[in-house]
Hints:
This protein has 439 residues and is an alpha/beta fold. It is 38% helix and 20% strand.
Amino acid sequence: xxxxxxxxxxxxxxxxxxxxxxxxxxxxxxxxxxxxxxxxxxxxxxxxxxxxxxxxxxxxxxxxxxxxxxxxxxxxxxxxxxxxxxxxxxxxxxxxxxxxxxxxxxxxxxxxxxxxxxxxxxxxxxxxxxxxxxxxxxxxxxxxxxxxxxxxxxxxxxxxxxxxxxxxxxxxxxxxxxxxxxxxxxxxxxxxxxxxxxxxxxxxxxxxxxxxxxxxxxxxxxxxxxxxxxxxxxxxxxxxxxxxxxxxxxxxxxxxxxxxxxxxxxxxxxxxxxxxxxxxxxxxxxxxxxxxxxxxxxxxxxxxxxxxxxxxxxxxxxxxxxxxxxxxxxxxxxxxxxxxxxxxxxxxxxxxxxxxxxxxxxxxxxxxxxxxxxxxxxxxxxxxxxxxxxxxxxxxxxxxxxxxxxxxxxxxxxxxxxxxxxxxxxxxxxxxxxxxxxx
Length: 439
């Protein structure tokens, strides 16, 4: 039995946080593989070590003096080492970093040192073997992650290792240069390690107790989600809900390994389980609500549109030619509406309008801006009658005008378009009817 545990930056920002992580790991003998992030913020106006490394390397690459900034980074790590009462020295490591900064090792190398150094401390603190991620995680020449090579090498490397620390966020290019993942890097590393060791679970420890039904900036103390499927998570993440980067899901999803999002500061909380499928019913009809502002709609009208073969393809081709991706395309017999990100569309709108007139000769084109899209997601919606009716009743009661409705054929989600100004009101109304009052 093996679990992979990943700890985020806030969970390893200080010696005190390290001790919490250490207690969590030691409390379960199955927690055999640890993926640490770089130290995050210790308090509100603090700076993350990764940001300090980027700033330090910017000075170095510009030929400016950077030793003072590097010493400040070293002091952050020394504070953790002393707080943990370790007999560990990172002097040689920092001399190597200084030398490589002077030699122009690159910003990827600079950023990766945060995880690398925290990995060394974590391994020493736990008495685990340290494995440099650059030796077991690989990227292709074009910068894409090399999943097959990584899985083969990492599986073989960990086969005889009972307990190990593998830093998150980075790997290496074919020529040996360090390369970082673009976003959510340590989450991705944890998922890759879990797949390689065929773990029973991948625990992702952060500063929240899992996913919440709605954004806590809009809903005060929203309920937690106990179990969520990969598909539900993808729908919510796509509409702005963030706890785990979606690229971190794919390696474990291929192996059917569940992910458990946990809180380092409240380890007794069960957190949220992310699974492929489940017979467990959600506590509420909906699993979650998420949304984004800043969309606009382009409504195209033309008589007999439905009988014109290739109409939709021609319309979307104009958006493609202008480098604009679409979000939703609801349609009627004589109308087709394209929802796009307003900031992508605004400076190209007249080119798009002219292109649409050229290829489909519409009767009229109407553009509406400052719209928001809200996704109401839940596996329980499929088996519950009247879900859509309850949503629209709640919105009408709150005087929210619905601009668009789009329901997927899977019945897993309903997308609603409203004015930007009604965004928060709409989310509160939907949360209230399904969670608070449960009408």
